[in-house]
Amino acid sequence: MTQTTFQGATSDAAAPAAEINLIDLSRELARHWRRLVLLPIVVGALALGATYLMAPQFTARTSLLPPQGGSSGALSAALNSSLGSLAGLAGAGGAKGSGDMYVSLLQSQTVADKLLDRFKLQELYKTNFRFESRDMLKSKSRISFNKKDGLIVIEVDDANPQRAAEIANQYVDELRTMTASMSLTEAQRKRAFFEKQLERTKLRLTEAQSALQAAGFSQGALRAEPKAAAEEYARTKAELTSTEVRLNSMRSVLADRSPELAPLIAAANALRAQLRSLEQKTDVAQGPDYVSKYREFKYQEALFEQIGRQFEAARLEESLEDNSIQVVDKASVPEWKSKPKRASIAMAVALIAFILLAIHVAGRHMWRSTPLR
């Protein structure tokens, strides 16, 4: 009985507090309509006047098409299908050129420092330290990559419209200078890698050929080490070497337990087993010294042919690659200020003032309407 009475009293006391009479609240707001209208207008007018104390800012805009980073997908697939086990080796772990990468280059400290020096921005911004000038330049520059159309857009704000356009265009020039001195594309890395490998293999092939000639030709050696077996041994060893080189290259950027390495490790183990089997069939100790030299010569010859095909394919892919930075819209001198947007600022301040004043009037009405307990 006592518990029921207590719950009923609690419900009766909470009911007035929970009820909000919207009609009375509307009447209270209507009673103060002059204050709710005139005061926000006055505050908005003051905010509008304050915007005239702000220095106008002009925005220059340029857009560019970054390097596409390679030939078409069909052509790349055709090239890769013609490559052996070294396909993708030179580009293992490398990041292909993309719009996001070029945006990062444009936002780099190197580009910022060159712009600071060229336009004497540290003196203009009146900063004591260089990192403060970089932060100021970053706040006045907006660099974005639109994945839909593939364009990079650069926008620069400055009090001087001429300087705004010059800084925006200088961003593009600095990007050109930086990309010209860096190997950024996959095809360039492939070509440089295979060029070095080709020179090394050519030297080893020459040495193997000289050693073979010094050993002399022997028909008995050929019978002990048939030509077909020697060529099979050479191809298998060349395949194993290229697989191991690719595996070591990928291990520099991937962990040993990565799923990408599993097929390569399995392929290397299978080639080693096949190579051991061939060595047992053609034991060098059972034949003259000519056998081992002939087998080494065939191995270097097969490896040289593989790397030669890779090098030619990489050269072709590089020749078809578009590494140029194409400016779509060059930044021109802006004719009208972009900041401050005086009308928008005045309206926003007036709206905020109205909302705060309405909350104040409604809160005071509710506080006065709440009965004392």
UniProtKB/TrEMBL annotation:
It comes from Roseateles amylovorans. The chain crosses the membrane at residues 36-55, 343-363. Residues 184-211 form a coiled coil. Keywords: Cell membrane, Coiled coil, Membrane, Transmembrane, Transmembrane helix. This is Wzz/FepE/Etk N-terminal domain-containing protein. Pfam families: Wzz. It is found in: Cell membrane. PANTHER family: FERRIC ENTEROBACTIN TRANSPORT PROTEIN FEPE, TYROSINE-PROTEIN KINASE. It is a multi-pass membrane protein. Residues 19-117 form the Polysaccharide chain length determinant N-terminal domain. InterPro entries: Bact_polysacc_biosynth/exp, LPS_length_determ_N. Gene3D superfamilies: FepE-like (3.30.1890.10).
